[in-house]
């Protein structure tokens, strides 16, 4: 890398010196033309205004008197040549004898029109001045010229200065190149360009080949890198480089984890039906890398396991309740109190039939009705009464809506049971199906939800003292909200002698 940088820097310095040399040469040529042009014009005007020259041009017999005037002017002025010609440009006197009697080249001169002119003719810078006779006619032409220098004449005339400039520029370029190469070497951890390119290729292959999602962020929380898995898990568009996290339509929970406002390992977030586990690692001096793992299938299995566990708990609660009733019946038989035994059996049967009958009368969906019957046994074991609101009216619904309704209702009832754990109380459920909306209201006699966290309870991972006091309202409520939103509905909570959760879903 050092050799490459040195070579490139030397090439840059050489190109710069060449450009400076050309620029200086052009400037020198322009300055030469300006200064020498004025000097040659002055020489030609002086010769054209000399009375002896005018007199000699007026009389052909006196043409032989012109050379002394021209040579004298050339010697005194230092001009390269001073020539005198007739109006038809035939040369009468010239430093070069071969030019005498020959036409004088005039180029684009305007001297034939009676106007002085300065310009380049061949390899000379020439000034042409007309000689005017007594009657105002042109009787001759005076041309004073000097040879044009070549482009790098200035450099040739001062080679020591040119070499000094070249040497200084070379030293500066080489020294700068070595310093730059050394600094770049430190910043690239001592790796050569080929090694860096190979590392980038390996990184790209690794990022797009792993099963985990990877998102890179800069110091302003803008996306700098997204692999294929992260793009799929987060449902990101194709073009995300440089886009701030806040402009990608993420929910608050997901945005908090990506930007680092929510700290901690294995943060769980929800994104369009997926349950993601995210970890954020800051990178100095600014930026971060976030990794994502899809836990949707694991959560689905966990929910299925929870459902089986709930069924087992329900069966256990029913077995426990049934065992207690058998013990009571056995005791009454041993006591011989057959009248009380008959009344006890009637009460138990009546209560069981009454609850099942009420559920069957007001809830027409078998899955939802079965869930309510099962949750009643769990609530009874915990010392909590589960009841239906008299206004409940739910008919038969399609199986997909039934599955979502079981999820929402089960989570809300479990949440109420958690809030009443260790306390005596009651839970009331109201299910209604009106026009194009299914409405679920679950109220409990627990401590309620603090108003300042009424929205936070639906976000998994929130941590406030009030939330901890309010009980575990985490992933279950987050899934409830996600289910309702997917059904174009909503879920909210308020307090009315306890917490009141209201969920709405479209069929």
Could you please describe the fold and organization of this structure?
The chain folds into three domains: 2-154, PAS domain (Beta-Lactamase), CATH 3.30.450; 210-294, Beta-Lactamase (2-Layer Sandwich), CATH 3.30.450.20; 298-505, Histidine kinase-like ATPase, C-terminal domain (Heat Shock Protein 90, 2-Layer Sandwich), CATH 3.30.565. 50% of the residues lie in helices and 19% in strands. The chain has helices at residues 2-48, 51-58, 66-77, 153-157, 159-187, 193-209, 228-233, 252-259, 296-335, 338-362, 366-382, 399-419, 465-469, 475-486, and strands at residues 81-85, 91-93, 117-121, 124-132, 138-147, 213-217, 223-226, 267-271, 274-282, 288-294, 384-388, 425-434, 437-444, 490-495, 499-505. α1 packs antiparallel against α3 (66-77), α9 runs antiparallel to α10 (338-362) and α9 crosses α11. It is rod-shaped. It is found in: Cell membrane.
